[in-house]
Specification:
Layout: E1 2-7, H1 15-28, E2 33-37, H2 43-47, H3 58-63, E3 73-76, E4 79-82, H4 90-94, H5 104-109, E5 118-122, H6 130-138, E6 141-147, H7 152-169, E7 176-181, H8 188-201, H9 214-222, H10 226-229, H11 234-248, H12 252-261
Parallel strand pairs: 1-5, 1-6, 2-4, 2-5, 6-7
Antiparallel strand pairs: 3-4
Helix pairs in contact: 1-11, 7-8
The structure holds adenosine-5'-triphosphate and magnesium ion.
Length: 262
């Protein structure tokens, strides 16, 4: 099970839209996929048309009150959501008195290891909270999501430093990859930002840049991933290309186990 944590301390840079559509693209490629809404704004839950009501959600899972399995919502065969509600924010407060609260997600996901190939985690727009700390600790790869807009490069460099500092302090070798999104190739400005990102992050950049798309905005508002209504849309092919890059990027643990099998 590969755990992909989508993060940035900046708000509104496309984390949730990317999480939903990368998960749908991995699922379309035949991977058993789980999307986890780790944001108390619950945008991924809403963007997937899920109503939680009184059913268990991620908060109860992180508290250890219910197993993750019992909070899962199957969206379609092969793709599930671990939903959030606004009350997820309570976990940040409770964490001040909890034992190792930043390991709660990793523990909760362990029993699901044989049920899913990929887990895609949508983080809140902050790097300092215990929710993001959980996602970074649990990750096999951190995807830094960067909007190709004003101040993008400065923000991306700062976010990269924060997340690599978090991983280093853990002694973790989890890689950080960088994904450009909301790219509008018609503007010189966006092209320059993208060139700057490639110059700064080199091999860490995904070749795929997710282009700006009104259809993506509409899909999140309608509660259904774009691939399920318009598989041939330009944005659907962007995410298919990203999913294929993700699947080709092997983590160190996968490489190690491949060598052990040889
Ligand atoms: N590729 C895209 N093309 C066009 N619009 C996009 C794209 N990605 C995201 N958006 C739009 O940008 C806005 C912010 O996107 P999104 O909610 O995914 O960001 P976020 O990083 O999750 O925000 P937050 O920090 O609040 O969680 C939304 O209005 C969304 O529809
Ligand atoms: Mg979001």
């Amino acid at each position: 099970m590969q755990i992909l944590t989508l993060a940035n301390q900046k708000g509104g840079c496309g984390k949730t839209t990317t999480a939903i559509h990368l998960a749908a693209a991995l699922h379309a490629a035949g991977e058993r996929t789980l999307i986890i809404d780790l944001d108390p704004q619950a945008h991924a839950t809403l963007g997937l048309g899920c109503f939680v009501g009184r059913s268990p959600s991620l908060l109860e899972v992180l508290r250890g009150e219910v197993p993750a399995q019992s909070a899962l919502r199957q969206l379609r065969p092969g793709i599930s959501l671990l939903p959030a509600t606004l009350s997820l924010g309570e976990f940040e407060e409770e964490a001040t008195v909890a034992l190792e609260p930043e390991r709660a997600l990793g523990h909760a996901l362990r029993p699901l290891a044989s049920s899913f190939d990929y887990v895609v985690i949508d983080c809140p727009p902050r790097a300092d909270g215990v929710l993001t700390a959980n996602a970074v600790r649990a990750a096999n790869q951190v995807l830094l999501i960067v909007e190709t807009g004003a101040f993008a490069l400065q923000g991306a460099v700062r976010a990269f430093e924060i997340f690599s500092g978090m991983l280093e302090s853990e002694g973790s070798s989890t890689p950080i990859q960088v994904l450009a999104t909301m790219f509008d190739r018609r503007t010189r400005f966006a092209r320059d930002v993208l060139i700057g990102m490639h110059a700064r992050f080199g091999e860490r950049m995904y070749d795929t840049a997710i282009r700006s798309s009104v259809k993506l905005r509409e899909a999140v508002a309608s509660g259904v991933p774009l691939q399920w209504t318009s598989p041939r849309a330009r944005a659907s092919s962007d995410f298919a290309a990203l999913a294929s890059e993700v699947r080709n990027t092997m983590s160190p643990s996968q490489i190690a186990s491949t060598f052990l099998e040889l």
